[in-house]
Amino acid sequence: MASQTNLGDEARLALETFAGRTAGLLSPSLRLGVTGLSRAGKTVFITSLVHNMLHGGRLPMFDAMKSGRIAKSYLEHQPDDAVPRFQYEDHVAALVGERIWPDSTRAISELRLTIDYESASGWGRMFSPGRLSLDIVDYPGEWLLDLPLLSKSYEEFSRDAVSLAELPVRAGLSREWRELAATIDPAAEADEMTARRLAEAFTRYLKAGKDDRSALSTLPPGRFLMPGDLEGSPALTFSPLPALGDARPAPGSLHAMMARRYEAYKSHVVRPFFRDHVAKLDRQIVLIDALQALNAGPAAVADLERALTEILSCFRPGARNILTDLFLRRIDRILIAATKADHLHHESHDRLEAIVRRLADRAISRASASGAEIEVLAMAAVRATREGTVRENGDTLPVIIGTPLQGETIGRDTFDGATETAIFPGDLPRDPKVALEESGNRAPIRFVRFRPPKLERTSEGVTLSLPHIRLDRAFQFLLGDRLA
Description:
By secondary structure, the chain is α/β, with parallel strands linked by helices. It is 37% helix and 15% strand.
């Protein structure tokens, strides 16, 4: 991690970790990172996690809840006053009251959920305070994909970016930027308007890659897609340049300007993000929308695998150790969750897990070698559909039933956002190799987006917790050992 932090950063992290660990002897806490690429469902996952804990959700695979050892869960003030609060209340109002999906993650946010519980063992009840504060850190996966830039020079970044842009799946998307860049002399005098035109064209290419039809995942620099308060700053007004050698750029040249701004981006944006947030995590969940990539074709699937490999390589994985834990934080459990399982019949859920596991094999083996425990899961943090069967041409077909969002289409049918519909989504192949290598030759999944469900109410008028698929298994893997 030498490229991600310097000695001063490491000393500061060690002191902060020691202070946090000693304070945690009386008030234990766990920092859970939640990330994923856009539209994978980070905001929905956190909202459903908190809603189910606060409302005693149906979580049969979550041991602490199943055994009745959780006394209560409640929100508290987060420990980091400089980090925006995750607006849980607003997101619940959108899901439950308006039945619309909340806005996507655009920046870092945090929320503290405290759980009062009884330990499962007599020894634990004697020495454990029976309270765990879960600090949930929500951040865009696009920003995480910037971390590999810390080990690359501007020239290496440019070569990699140009090579990616020339791939068949990206060539059409990047044509405007590549044609413009080809007319630019890197040795020419630095010019602000030229830098701006290049940066804007490069940003349009990255944004086009996020379109549903392309469904690309590896699109750094991440802040070009989510600039926040940096929009228009010199740190975001740069672009890769083609045909650069390894020679030092001439002072005052466009090459020198671009390289300086690239280094400023790393110093002022990427490195602080790692030091202040990623390096302080204990557990991590990575949410991915594998169904969208499968529908988009083999190139999108390959790009998702590339992104997942880069994301997992950015963490600091490692098993817990009573001695080193006092000064070093390591992520000892990572969950890779394929979201939107409610868009498939349950018969395909295991197949979805198998596909994602195969996608992540190389990255998982790298992280596992460092001691982290990694699990793969197909889930839906909020279940928007239910299952049923229909008869068609003498055959019984398994279908999912829900209310598609207004404007969603299948063939010539366009949905109005109010009518409940039964849809046969198609089946994933049993062999994940077929799905990954031949996804362009099979019938696509009928993937449409559904409105959030209408929540059930008890006879007393109490709204029940948000329905889900395997959220309890996610809880058990991420939190179960800390509530034992």
